[in-house]
């Protein structure tokens, strides 16, 4: 091969880990407008500049790919909800609620599909959903300095179900101001855990 016939920029090969991360990132970028169960493998492969069959080299099945995207989205939600270090305990729960409302506003359809997918029996969604809720329950109990017992866990889990439903409805049709919504959510939580 002569110097003039060589390509100017050789194609860089990605490692398997880098390619998997790229494909998951593409799924995350599509989530604001497309629930994970509706992501098309063809569209993800097209955006990655690879063939559909090559995507299945990195993820054996569609379900494996969807699970990876769902887990990555849940991790982002978790990181988004965590309070900044040094935030006073009294502000941590209210801040978490405010950030949660913002998350649902941004990712309403995807979040709704995540919650409904978990409730509808999709095992791959349910596992990620339960892990995420469990971490949020622990964070809430710790922040409120409550005992981590079966009763408090049940109450906080029930409150999360209420909050998910109310926030999802409120984003679709705001019937109160955002500060009123946050105050209501916090009031219900405080009343439940005071038992």
UniProtKB/TrEMBL annotation:
InterPro entries given in the database record: DesT_TetR_C (IPR054129), Homeodomain-like_sf (IPR009057), HTH-type_TetR-like_transc_reg (IPR050109), HTH_TetR (IPR001647)
Pfam families: TetR_C_46, TetR_N
GO molecular function: DNA-binding transcription factor activity; transcription cis-regulatory region binding
Gene3D superfamilies in the record: Tetracycline Repressor, domain 2
Source organism superkingdom: Bacteria
Entry-linked SUPFAM superfamilies: Homeodomain-like
Residue ranges of every copy of the HTH tetR-type domain listed in the record: 17-77
Keywords associated with the record: DNA-binding, Transcription, Transcription regulation
Residue ranges of the annotated DNA-binding region, renumbered to this chain: 40-59
Protein name as it appears in the record: TetR family transcriptional regulator
């Amino acid at each position: 091969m002569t110097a003039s016939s060589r390509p100017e920029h050789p194609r860089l090969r990605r490692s398997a880990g880098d390619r998997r991360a790229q494909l998951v990132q593409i799924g995350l970028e599509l989530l604001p407008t497309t629930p994970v169960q509706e992501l098309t493998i063809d569209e993800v492969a097209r955006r990655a500049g690879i063939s559909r069959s090559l995507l299945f080299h990195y993820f054996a099945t569609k379900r494996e790919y969807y699970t990876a995207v769902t887990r990555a989205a849940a991790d982002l939600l978790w990181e988004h909800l965590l309070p900044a270090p040094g935030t006073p305990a009294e502000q941590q729960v209210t801040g978490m609620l405010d950030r949660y409302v913002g998350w649902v506003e941004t990712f309403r359809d995807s979040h709704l599909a995540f919650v409904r997918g978990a409730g509808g029996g999709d095992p791959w969604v349910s596992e990620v959903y339960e892990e995420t809720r469990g971490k949020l329950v622990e964070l809430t109990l710790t922040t409120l300095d409550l005992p981590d017992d079966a009763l408090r866990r049940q109450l906080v889990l029930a409150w999360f179900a209420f909050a998910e439903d109310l926030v999802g409805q409120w984003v679709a049709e705001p019937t109160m101001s955002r500060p009123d919504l946050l105050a209501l959510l916090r009031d219900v939580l405080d009343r439940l855990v005071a038992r």
